[in-house]
Amino acid sequence: MSLDQVNAFYEVLMSDQAIYEQYHQKCCVKGLFGIWDWDKTKIVHFASTLGYTFTEHDLDEAWFGGDPGISESSLNLSEYQRYMV
């Protein structure tokens, strides 16, 4: 259900330029070297103002197909530290 909310939210963004411009202005910051950084917390909040309900995890799943990459909780640093000695 939440992925449906994410998809519906992005359909609205793609179909309404005024909403997309607000989304871009409120949820994106130009970072180092001209790279655009999207703030997932701000995206979830912005979507909620339009009536959509989903979490940052749902957003990751929609963006990356359920594999947002390596998370801090999935790293076992002790495994790596023993090789660093």
UniProtKB/TrEMBL annotation:
Ranges where the Nif11 domain occurs: 1-59
InterPro entries, per the entry: Nif11 (IPR012903)
Pfam families: Nif11
Name of the molecule in the record: Nif11 domain-containing protein
Organism, scientific name: Brasilonema sennae CENA114
